[in-house]
Amino acid sequence: MTLVELIVVIAVSALFLGLLAGLFINGIQTQEQATARDRATGRANVVSSSIGTSVRNAVAVKVSGSGSRLDAKILTTAGGFECRAWVLDGTALRYSSGTTARANTPSGWTALATGVTATLSGGAAFALQGTQAVSFGLTVTDNGQKAVLTDGVKAQAFKAGGVACF
Length: 166
Known about the structure:
Blueprint: H1 3-56, E1 58-63, E2 69-75, E3 81-89, E4 92-98, E5 110-114, E6 116-118, E7 126-129, E8 133-142, E9 145-154
Antiparallel strand pairs: 1-2, 2-3, 3-4, 4-5, 6-8, 7-8, 8-9
């Protein structure tokens, strides 16, 4: 093999390896984007399920003036009452439940999702529609991939008495 042939073989091999490496890198980036999108969608589903199921079983709901907090008085399957609250605390949507009114400081609450921003008008996460219905608008972001959550739910339980949740 002559020197020219050797140079051509090396050049063609380098070109082929470069293209192959590019395909692998593109595949890895695409996989990371899909994984991030799936994580964001999963977190949005957890939030939607938590709020939707709870508010549907609520006898009363309240939204803070800023629209960053939602409180609900829930009728449990055992026939008792439970106080539940969600708050957008920075970029974390936090959740708390118990038999008494939920604290005003959500730092110890469970983070249902991080990377969350409010999308309703005025920068609100929650809005009261009438006295028993709540709409919520949130975007969950993970590594640049977004899952938009815009929904509404109506409190449908009826029972007097119980604990004072708000």
